Structure formats: C-alpha cells, structure tokens
Automatic annotation (TrEMBL), chains A, B:
Coiled coil: none annotated. Gene3D superfamilies: Cobalt-precorrin-4 Transmethylase, Domain 1, Methyltransferase, Cobalt-precorrin-4 Transmethylase, Domain 2. One of its GO terms (molecular function) is precorrin-3B C17-methyltransferase activity. Keywords: Cobalamin biosynthesis, Methyltransferase, S-adenosyl-L-methionine, Transferase. InterPro entries: 4pyrrol_Mease (IPR000878), 4pyrrol_Methylase_sf (IPR035996), 4pyrrole_Mease_sub1 (IPR014777), 4pyrrole_Mease_sub2 (IPR014776), Cbl_synth_CobJ/CibH_dom (IPR006363), Precorrin_MeTrfase (IPR051810). The keyword Methyltransferase applies. It comes from Mogibacterium kristiansenii. This is Precorrin-3B C(17)-methyltransferase. One of its GO terms (biological process) is cobalamin biosynthetic process. Its EC number is 2.1.1.131. SUPFAM superfamilies: Tetrapyrrole methylase. Residues 4-211 form the Tetrapyrrole methylase domain. Pathway: Cofactor biosynthesis; adenosylcobalamin biosynthesis.
Length: 244, 244
C-alpha cells in the first residue's frame, strides 16, 4: 500500500497562523519532514510524531525522501513556512511525482508572507499586485529585473520576497533603482515587515527613496505601493476605489 | 470606552480554512458584520454572537456601521471571504479610520483564492506572479488591460479574480486576446478552479486558447502560467527552477 504525501503550508510561523485544515493534515501524518526550524514548531504541538529534518539547500533530496517513505506505506507531511505553493516545495514535489506515480500528493495552502505582512502593515495589497523574489539563486537577474520593470509599468503594488542576503546585500537598492528608472516616484508609498508572525514583528512605512537605503534581511517582506497607495496613521493603504 | 474592530479574512469558505488566529478574533467579538453568506458560516460555529448583515454593494455603509458600534464600546468583527486585504474591506476600513480616530482596527489575514485555488490545481504560483481582477466596477478597463499586458511582458504567472459576471460575460475572452496579442502562446499552460473550499470544487487544466472559450463565473479563479509552466498528471505546475 502506497502512502500519502501532504505538502503543508504552515502560515507565518506561529501555531495560530495555521489553518484547521493544515493542523488536521499534520494530525493525519506518521512522519513530519522539513527544515529544522519549522519542524521544531510542529514538534511543540505534536510531540508524538516521527520527525525527519534536513539542512537547507537539500530541497530535492527532502522531496525524494518523502516519496520513499510514502512508498513504504507512511503518511508523510512536508511542512513549509507560509504557503507551500509560493516559492515553496509544492512544485518540485509535484514535478517529481512522475518518478513515483503511485504516491498521492495533496497541497494544503497556508498564509504566505505577502498576505500576513500586508495585514501588519495595513492594506497595501488591496488592489492588483505582483509578488517578486529578488533571489537569483534559481532565477537569472535579467528576468528579475524585467519583472520589476513590468511591475512598475503595470502600476502593480509589488510584494518583494528575499530582498537581501549576506551575498546580496545591495539587491533591494538595485531593485529600487530599477523602479525609479521605470518611472516610480521617489516619494512612492512603501513599507516593510520583519519577523512576521514571530517575536519582534516590526512594520515600517517609508518612501521609495527611503526604502532604497533601508537595512533589510532575508526574512523581511517589502511592499512598494502603486501610484495611488498612501500612508495614513502609520498604515500603508492601497485604495480599492470606493467613494468614501 | 472605544471598542476594537477586527477585519477578519475567513479563507476559502469552509470552517477548516480559517486560521486559529481568525477563530480567536471571532471569539473576541461581540458582534459579527458581513455579507449574509459569510455571516451564516460564522453563525453555524458561533451561534451565541450578535450578527449584523447587509446586502452586497453597501460596503462603505457596512464599514461605517462597524465604527459606530465600536464607538458604542462593542468589539466588532467584519468578516470577509479569503483575505480581507486582497480586494477586501481592509483598505476602506483603514481609510475611514481618519473619521473615527479613536477606534482600533486590526486586520487578520486569511487564505486568498489565489492561494487556495492554486493548491487545488497543483502549484501554478510557485514563481513570481501577479494577481489581477477583471472587474471594472471600480477600475477603468484601460488600467486592467495595461496590467494584463505587463503581466505577460514580465512573464509572470497570472491569477485572475472576477473573470466574469452576468454583465461581463466576455471579459475572460477579452483578457485572453490581450495576452495572446502581448506574446503569450496559444498553448500556454492555464487552469481554473470553481467553488474553491466549497461543495463542488472543480479544477480544470487547459491551454490559453481553450481558456479563451471557457465558461467561467464570478466565483472562478483563473490561472495563466508563465512561459515555463506545464501540465503534468492533471496538475498545473510552475517550476521553481531546481535541477531534478
């Protein structure tokens, strides 16, 4: 008998950010697989489960391990922060299914950082928006640059993931320069949120010119408003268009 | 004493799609406000609450009612399907706060249809994406058209909200024509999901040419892949870029 794999989005990183559906999926699993930090969060609430942790940068090995355990009859939960389908492991897991056609895979959605950070900051995504990762580990920078430019030209609100890392300390500044060159005004309403759903959550509103100078890290989610976004009472708001 | 307003995203429409945080916010409220259909969902689980329902198209009156009740000392929950900050009531509620500066407003995020539908369809949003509503009730069609074009030019995956209604039966076809004119291939991998999180959830994968002819309604969420998206085993997948 082949087992089932659940790819589970855990939301912003605290137990109460999970949906009941995600908790039910964890309940149904024999073994929980993931990065050490997320597995520890699960272990606190479900100490009786089996756990299998792998270090970062071994994503595909981790997916294969899930299939191997499923083929041995286990029900397996691969846990991801946020939503498993947004820069997460849902796609590679489903891609690999061609090698393991008998295992069943179910993706359980979770609240991704764009949404959980937006709620902290106000309502920046309340109109058409795009989500762009500045990580060029798996994506050529030229593609990222084109997307930033099209995001501005389309007057989308932009939610930026992975705005910085040790090796890419200046990427947010580079992204801001592309936005300015594409026509975004230096006083465009922006903001960023650190440690969403964790201790020390911090929300900052600022202009695009100030964002260019901001110190952010890989856990920061950055928001660049559209041409109608504004800051009011410390909140970043993109109007939906109602007459108030 | 002024009360507190929670703007609560309920997720895809079933009780298990809510987060624990959203359920805690409902617990904390004296009165729950919203469209009849979402209020009924809450009433099933929290029959002891007070409820205040308003018909559609009275969004701003509903927000003002929340502030009036908060000023009378009540803790008020405005419930929205999906995420309150994605085409929801978070922005107008926060905008109105300038008229009611003493009430406190907290936005509780929920899983928006882009994410919950994506999980049903596979992993279509597993790379940079944009979310566009085809409703021109509050947005000029020229703005929507430009965003669709920029979405294709940026090679974003696109999640389309409000793809159709009785008065706009041909909008998805118009959107598909803009995409094709902007360079998306007729065999671009696409899909759509109906009744996400409700009875009769249905996921369909298709090409962009087929999507152009699809019969969808205002509750359908539509996905147009990027140039690397593909359909495998009935799932719409946008690869993250890993070597498998």
């Amino acid at each position: 008998m082949k087992g089932h794999i659940y790819v589970i989005g855990m939301g912003p990183g605290k137990r109460t950010g999970m949906t009941a559906e995600a908790a039910e999926a964890v309940n149904a699993c024999d073994v929980i697989v993931g990065y050490t930090v997320y597995v520890e969060l699960i272990r606190t609430s479900w100490p009786e489960k089996d756990f299998f942790t792998t270090p970062m940068r071994q994503e595909i090995a981790r997916c294969r391990k899930c299939y191997e355990m499923a083929e041995a009859g286990k029900t397996v939960g691969l846990v991801c922060s946020g939503d498993a389908g947004i820069y997460g492991m849902a796609a590679p897991m489903l891609e690999l299914q061609r090698e393991y056609p008998e295992a069943e895979v179910t993706v359980i959605p979770g609240i991704t950082a764009a949404n959980s950070g937006a709620a902290v900051l106000g309502a920046p995504l309340n109109h058409d928006f795009c989500v762009i990762s500045l990580s060029d580990l798996l994506t050529p920078w030229a593609v990222i640059e084109r997307r930033i430019r099209c995001g501005v030209q389309g007057d989308f609100v932009m939610a930026i993931y992975n705005p910085s890392s040790r090796k890419r300390a200046d990427y947010l500044r580079k992204a801001a320069d592309i936005m300015l060159a594409a026509g975004a005004e230096p006083n465009r309403a922006c903001g960023y949120v650190e440690n969403i759903g964790r201790e020390g959550t911090q929300a900052v509103t600022c202009t695009l010119a100030e964002l260019r100078e901001a110190k952010v890290n890989m856990f920061t989610t950055v928001y660049v408003g559209n041409s109608r976004s504004f800051i009011q009472g410390g909140k970043l708001i993109t109007p939906r268009g109602y007459e108030l």
